[in-house]
Amino acid sequence: MESIHEKAQVLIDALPYIRTFHGKTFVIKFGGGALDGGGEESLSFAQDLVLLQHIGIRPVVVHGGGPQISSLMGRLGMAFEFVNGIRVTGSDAMEVVEMVLTGRINREIVTMVHRHGGRAVGISGRDAGFLVGTRKVHDGRDLGHVGEIVSVNPEILDLLDRHRYIPIVAPVGVTSEGEALNINADEAAAVIAGALKAEKLIMMTNTRGVLDDKGELLGSLDREEILSLIGRGVIAGGMVPKMQGCLRALAEGVGKVHVIDGRIAHALLLEIFTPEGVGTEIVRGGGE
Length: 288
Ligand SMILES: Nc1ncnc2c1ncn2[C@@H]1O[C@H](COP(=O)(O)OP(=O)(O)OP(=O)(O)O)[C@@H](O)[C@H]1O
Ligand SMILES: [Mg+2]
Fold this sequence. Notes:
Largest sheet: 8 strands, mixed
Distance between the termini: 48 Å
EC number: 2.7.2.8
CATH architecture: 3-Layer(aba) Sandwich
GO cellular component, one term: cytoplasm
CATH class: Alpha Beta
Binding site for substrate: 65-66, 87, 182
Strand order of the largest sheet: 5-8-2-1-11-13-14-12
Order of helices and strands: HEHHEHEEHEEEHEEEHEEHHEHE
Subcellular location: Cytoplasm
Structural class: alpha/beta
Bound molecules: adenosine-5'-triphosphate, magnesium ion
Helix content: 40-55%
Oligomer: single chain
Shape: globular
Number of strands: 14
Keywords: Amino-acid biosynthesis, Arginine biosynthesis, ATP-binding, Cytoplasm, Kinase, Nucleotide-binding, Transferase
């Protein structure tokens, strides 16, 4: 059984991390897959957020919702298609995407944080002109409402931060004409982390990290290794936009970028407060 002394030691071991990260911004992408893993892990995620906030770290959460969107589209009898991990989004699909992301998942995360004594406010890219973008054309293909972010207006995040609310961001953007855009949540997290010059971007997903062709965890990857793994098809599907987001965040000045297993209880604390870390760290290449 753990003694009082061991408990004290755990807290003291966390002290250098608390001192280093006090006042720093962490952007945390919580994948829809991780959210679907069951109640307990998601609740532990909310607890971790509240703890981070109370020790003076500024968490900004961006969530996904791929499996939940597919599930509702299936129940509504709607067909869906992916191109390189990106959902082709016609007008009907966009309605479902926005309903599930801002109407359901966003609210669930906000509520979980409040249940643990934290303070959170849910926003989408439409609020206060936060994420403005345009439709994205992929290899000459029309992907409907799939968008890319053109400008980030972080004013709303500063406002929430000043009053100590954790922003929970649904990755829905808006065009200058007011049309809704389906933004890949990894891309949204990367762009927001870049705009805030975040200390860390942590991608919480439904695998142990980035895996090689034998299913082994890759502890650290740089740009060249990632491009080669994508070229060989080892990194595929939803992991492609995630890796692109990680590289973009590093290029835009984010300090550190990690892909970790959001299905593990308290994965966030393990990543932040232990020297070993968990999952895959994405690093700048040698020459950069
Ligand atoms: N080399 C790889 N290592 C790990 N996962 C991989 C790899 N290549 C492809 N994948 C797939 O990528 C998936 C993770 O991306 P996915 O988009 O499904 O989840 P997410 O981004 O966490 O959630 P959401 O899209 O809802 O935000 C894994 O579940 C796995 O199926
Ligand atoms: Mg994804």
